[in-house]
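User: Round two. Same drill as before: sequence, then structure, for each protein.

Assistant: Same drill it is. First protein:
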Amino acid sequence: QRRVHGDFVRPAPITMSKHVVEKSTTKVFTLAEVAEHVTDKSKFIIVDNKVYDVTEFVNEHPGGVEVVVEYQGKDATTAFDDVGHSSDAREMLVPLQVGVVAETERANSKKDAKKSVAPAPVNGAPSSGWSPLLIVALLALIAGVGYKVFGASH
C-alpha cells in the first residue's frame, strides 16, 4: 500500500521484528534549484543542509517576515544558529522539510567544523585559548568576591 506525501509517493512501512522502518524518497536539490524558490508562491530556505518550504510559515514567523524573506532561496544556517533558536523552533521546521541539498553542494556540517583546526595565532604568538569575554567575566567575578570578603569586613 502506498501513501501520497507531497509530490512523492511513499512506499508502505516495512515491519521488521517489532520495529517499523519507513522507506522514504527524499528530494535532492541543487543550490540553483533552491535559489529559484523566491516568489510569493514558493519560498525555500536551507538550514543544516535541509531544504524547507516556508511559504505558508513566513507570515507566522515570530521574528517577522523580513528575516525569512532575506534568506529565501539561500542557506540560512548561520543566521538561524546565531539567533539561538530553541529546540521547539527546530521542531517547527520538521513538517516544512521538502528535501536536502545535494551532497556535492553541501556547506560544511557542524561535525566538520568541530574537526577543523583552529586558525594560526597572529604573528606566530601562542594562543592561550582565553577569549576576551571570558577574561572580563573572570575579572568581574574576582572583583565581586573581593568586595564581599574585604568590603563587607570594613
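Second protein:
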Amino acid sequence: MEVLSKLDIISSDDKSFFNLLCQLDSLIKNSEDFRRQTPNQFYKILHIKLEELLFADQKHWSLLRFILKCIKNSAASHKSEFSLEECDLCDKLVQLLDIEVLSIYEKVDQDQFHFHLNILQYIFNLVQGNKSALDKRHLQWSNLTFNLITKVNLDQQVYDISSMILLNVYNERENSENLYNNIFSRLNLLDFVNLVEFVEQKFKNQPLQNKFSNWTFKLLDKMFDFIYSKYLIKSNVEKFTVNFRFFVIYHISDRLLDSKEAKIQKCYLNFESLEFFCQIYTTTFQDILSLFDQILEKPFDDVLHLFKQSKLIAGVLCDFLTMEETRHDNHNMVIFVQNQKQLMKLTCQLFKEINCNKNYIFLVEKHANENIGEWLLLKCDLVRMIGILVYENESNQGYLVNDQLMEIIANNLNLDVENPFLREWSIVALKHILCQLDKKYVSKQLCSILLGMDFLHPNLNY
C-alpha cells in the first residue's frame, strides 16, 4: 500500500510525515476493508515510528497522539485475527500507559494525555471487535482497567473507558459471573465508595438518565450485589455520606423490582437485609427532619436529594414487608420493624411535619408544576408505613393516639389528585388502629370526622 510504503522509508521528523499520517487516517476512516483486514505492515511500521518518537530528545506528543488515533481506529471493525505484529504493538502500548499522566491530566500537555487515553480506547475497540485478541489478553486488560478504576482523581473519561472494557471483557465467556466476582473480590469498600462518590458528585444536578447511561455507573451497578453481600450489609450506615447512601438506597429499590429472581431473594430478602434497611430508614429520616426548621433556607438541591432518599427507602421497607416473596416470615418481620421504636417515632414525626409545617407546604406548592415536585410528596408513603407499624400492635396504636396523629391521618381522607392512593392507605391505617382501640381514646373531633365512613369497625358505637 503506497501510503504505508512511504511511511516506512520516511523519518518521523520529516515535514511530510504528518501529511502521510493524515492520508493514512483518511484511508482507515473510509475503508471498511482496510479496518477488517489491516495489513501486518501497518502495525510493524507504526510500532517503529512510535519508538522513534518516544526515544527522541524532544517528544512530539501531537504526532504520537495522531499515530495512536490511527491504531485505535484500525480496530474499530470486527476482525477474526490478532496478528503477532499487532499483539507486540498492543503489549508495548500497555507498557507505555502512564497512570501518573492520567491522574494529573489538568497539568500535562493535552496531546500527551490523549495519547494515553487513546491506548485505552484502542483496547476497548479490540475487546468489542476482536475475539482472538480478547481470548489472548483478557486477563491482562481486566487487571489493567481494574487497577485504573481503583485510583482516585482520574479524568472521567479514564473511568468510563476502563469501565467499558471491564463490562465487556468477560461478557461472552463461560462462567462470566464467577469471573466478574473474582475481579470484584479484589475491590475493597473504600475503593467502591470513592468511585460512587465520584459518579454521584459528577451527576448530582443532572437528569437521572444521564447518570444511568454512564459506563462507570453501569459498572458500579454490576458490582453492587457482590459489594452489598460482602461489605455493605455489615456496615455502619451512619458513616455513609448522603451521596453514597442515595446510591445504596436506589440500588436496593431497583433490585426489589426483580424480587421473583432467586438471586435477589437470596441476597436481599432476609432478616439481615431488613435490619440494614431499618438502619438506612432511621438515619435518612433523622437527616431530613433536621432540615425542617430551615427548609426554605437550605439549597433546594440538598433538600430534594434527601426527599428522594426518604421516599425511596420508605417504599423499599413497605414493599419488603408486603411482597409475596417474604410471606413465609412476614409476621416476624413486621413485628421486628414494629419494635424499632426510633423508626416509629421518626415516621410519625415526619408525617406530622409534612402535614403541618407551613414552610414545607409552601415548598410543595412552589414546585408543584415541576417534574421534580412528586419527590416532595411523602404523605402516601408515610401513612402506608404507619399502617404497617400499627397493625395488631397496641403499643404503637397507643402512641399514635397520644400523639394526636389519628386526626391528622383522618384529615387525609379526601381524594387528593396529587396523591391518588393517600385516601386508601389512610383508611387502612385507621382500620388497623380502630379495630382494636378502646373507643374512649377516640376524641369527639375524630368521631365527627369519621361519622358515616363505611370502613369503621362494626363494634365501635359512636
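Residues 300-322 form the longest helix (23 residues).

User: Perfect.
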